[in-house]
Amino acid sequence: MAASSASGPALVSAIERPSVEGRDATLTTPNKALAGAVAVRVLYVALALVIFVLALELLTAGASGAGSLLSKLAADGPTNLFGFGWLGAYVMLSGSPVAATSLGLFSGGAISDLESFAMITGSRFGASFMVLLVGFLYYVRNQRNPDGLYIGVVALLTTFTIYTPSLLLGLLALDQGWFDGINVGAPPGLATLSQDTVGRVADGALDVMPELLVFALGAGALLVAFQLFDRVLPNLEPPGPRLERVLAFFHRPLTMFVMGGLVTLLTLSVSISLTLLVPLSMKGIVRRHGIVPYVMGANITTFIDTLFAAVILDAPRAVTVVVVQMVLTAAVSLVVLVLLYQPYQQAILGLARRLTASRRSFAAFLIAIFIVPGVLLAV
Questions:
Q1: How far apart are CA 11 and CA 2, in angstroms?
Q2: How far apart are CA 131 and CA 128, in angstroms?
Q3: pLDDT of 207-260, one tens digit each?
Q4: Is the pTM of this model over 0.85?
Q5: Any residues with CB less than 8 A from the CB of 100 and at least 6 apart, and which?
Q6: Helix, strand, coil shares of the chain as percentages rounded to 5?
Q7: pLDDT at 100 (0 to 100)
Q8: pLDDT grade, residue 12 (50/70/90)?
Q9: Spatial distance between the Cα atoms of 367 and 169, rounded to a whole number of angstroms
Q10: Burial bucket for residue 49 (CB in 10 Å: 0-12, 13-18, 19+)
Q11: Calpha distance 368→126 (Å, rounded)
Q12: Domain residues of the chain, as ranges?
């Protein structure tokens, strides 16, 4: 009996307290899952980087063929390339692939630095269209609530009015050589490594395919690379409760300016960061007066991926083109934010209200943002 009663508590204790080995196995299961998820993300990043570099090499190798196509389209000069970049961003629903393509064309000698600069700026104009598109979807889904359209129009007007002076200043700066002292190439050994690996693939493709087809292949690879990046980069749509609580405190212009820049830097996509404005504003997290500085900040850090592409190409002048874009856009934005913010914001919000007040005025605005880049491409 004594043995039996002694074994009883021991048995109960064993049942109530799982073994150390069992606890360890339970604890390590989430860790293994996390490690697996991290490994998959790392694999996606590595694959995306390889495809991204390959795409740039293909674009450079096939630039002559694309240059011939641009000649047939009579696309020549900053004005034409500005319109081309603007429409190209509409087609791809993103400005980053178009901006990277312009650097490939420049690196391959198909276009000049001024034309590349103009094409990149055009791609920024077109990238903001995603906000209007998402706003339209909210308009359809939310019983014809025009707030989504209003947010999209504000984003477009802010982009247009900030980038237009930075475009003109940038063309002057490049022409006069104000930033010629910036001479940054790829890190030592990176250009050689790229040329000895994916560069050979691009050269092999050029041996068996027409230049224009090689260029098209590079553009397709660029889209694939950005899709892979989207799989691993943070997706803040819709925002989580923690982000909503944080953003609820940010209503000052300077804070929203910094927030727009940080979100774009985090996602490496101005399309994503600006698109966030629609749900955030519809929920009242971002107030209407915070939209303008948010867009201004986002439009600066959006050039980070383009700068990376310029460095990978080992084309110092291409780096100069992107740096000019970033510096002058930041300068114009800060001047407006510090000295002209109140009248500027009132003008943007007031014009946006008028453009979304009726279907006729909104339709006229929609037609204009498609006709203007078409005219610029055709002149």
A1: 14
A2: 6
A3: 677 766 776 777 677 667 656 655 665 544 444 555 555 555 556 777 777 877
A4: no
A5: 55, 56, 59, 222, 305, 306, 309
A6: 80, 0, 20
A7: 83
A8: very low
A9: 28
A10: middle
A11: 13
A12: 20-378
